[in-house]
Design goal:
Number of strands: 3
Order of helices and strands: HHHHHEEEHHHHHHHHH
Distance between the termini: 10 Å
Number of domains: 1
Structural class: mainly alpha
Radius of gyration: 21 Å
Shape: globular
Number of helices: 14
Helix content: over 70%
Largest sheet: 3 strands, antiparallel
Length: about 400
């Protein structure tokens, strides 16, 4: 098994070298050393994790996703790839920090809930707007999205709530405040993600049909309320339902994404041969469509299989964890990543309304990359150490 893992690393390195060489041939000068440094960084994380006797099986999957993202960002705009490169290096440090945090039991649930609400409140008061949502905060010259950390802190609280049977009124107050602040910021994508994660954790802890029905009704009511009160969500809903009626406005991005996927066929047009420039906000919102156009169905299917493998690794890791609190925490962190994948890919495929979130570990966005690597480190840490192999 160990030999297979190491062989996979070097096979991936050869494939990455071929993609980078192809980009150089197509576009001339690119920062060819950046993927090499990232490959070395992830290899170091893999060896460090194994040396500490933790389960490092997820790191090859994460490396594939991050480096695929870098390749396509470099193909679109070299400056995006460079910024993502530095964000990935910071994310590697966040992984190590998360690995250390994951060996703790995360006490003081109200402190974590307060930290989540505090981050959102600071964003609501002092944040900047982008893409229709007031979701950005600048601190010491660094611009980031506090909601990426806030939802992790909220999962810490939810894990305690379910395993310690804390008062329901407390949960109601905290969740209501969380969703109301996000609504005030008009940042509805993360609100939907957190709501789905909460529902899944609740049903996993104790499943009842009335509870499931209640969550479905709450989802429908929330969608109707958001449709009536938030113009930018109304635009996304109309673009989702009737994109052809809004071809020259709100439906343009949706249709261009579908055209890109359709033109990719089975094997794709080839790296650099697509028309990514016609899709608005392609580097953040619609990178999945570009991958589909240039790598085809086989490329997108392979990408989704990497995510599925990462989910399988996480669930297998959590199955061996005996502590209920750590189990629920690990489940929440896993859901934060993979429910977001479903919402983003489903939005591009027009299965669900598009939420405006990034494709985890692939799309442009340093804050999300740092938060997701930190979550991965926490998962590895709470999974515990293994015996010598």
């Amino acid at each position: 098994m160990i030999r297979i893992l190491y062989r996979t690393w070097f096979e991936f390195a050869g494939w990455l070298f071929c993609l980078t060489w192809w980009l150089i041939w197509l576009q001339g000068q690119i920062c060819w050393w950046q993927p090499m440094v990232l490959w070395v960084a992830f290899m170091v994380l893999f060896l460090l994790t194994r040396q500490l006797r933790f389960n490092g099986g997820a790191i090859p999957f994460v490396a594939i996703l991050v480096l695929i993202g870098w390749v396509f960002l470099a193909r679109l705009n070299a400056s995006w790839a460079t910024l993502q490169f530095w964000g990935a290096l910071v994310a590697c440090v966040a992984y190590v920090l998360g690995l250390w945090i994951g060996t703790r039991r995360f006490p003081y649930p109200l402190m974590w809930a307060g930290a989540a609400l505090g981050l959102l409140a600071a964003t609501a008061l002092f944040g900047q707007s982008a893409g229709g949502a007031q979701a950005w905060l600048t601190l010491f010259g660094v611009r980031f999205q506090p909601v990426e950390l806030a939802r992790i802190f909220l999962v810490f609280y939810l894990a305690h709530y379910f395993t310690e049977e804390r008062p329901r009124w407390e949960l109601l107050v905290i969740l209501s405040a969380f969703f109301l602040i996000l609504a005030w910021q008009r940042d509805l994508g993360p609100a939907l993600l957190v709501f789905f994660v909460f529902c899944w954790m609740s049903l996993h802890w104790k499943f009842t049909w009335p509870k499931l029905f209640g969550y479905i009704v709450a989802t429908a009511c929330g969608f109707i309320f958001a449709y009536l009160w938030f113009p930018h969500l109304r635009s996304r809903a109309l673009a989702w339902l009737w994109p052809w009626d809004y071809l020259d406005s709100k439906g343009y991005q949706v249709l261009q994404g579908l055209f890109a996927l359709r033109s990719g066929g089975v094997v794709g047009q080839g790296l650099g041969a697509g028309f990514a420039q016609v899709i608005p906000n392609v580097h953040t919102d619609y990178l999945f469509a570009v991958i589909g156009e240039e790598f085809g169905f086989l490329g997108t299917f392979s990408l989704l299989m990497v995510y599925l493998s990462l989910a399988f690794w996480a669930l297998r890791l959590l199955h061996a964890v005996q502590d209920k609190l750590l189990q629920m925490l690990g489940l929440g962190l896993t859901l934060l990543l993979h429910v977001q994948v479903f919402l983003v890919v489903g939005g591009v495929l027009r299965l669900v309304p598009f939420t405006g979130m990034t494709l985890p570990l692939v799309s442009y966005g340093s804050t999300s990359l740092v938060a997701q690597l930190a979550m991965l480190g926490m998962l590895v840490g709470l999974g515990g150490k293994r015996g010598e192999e």
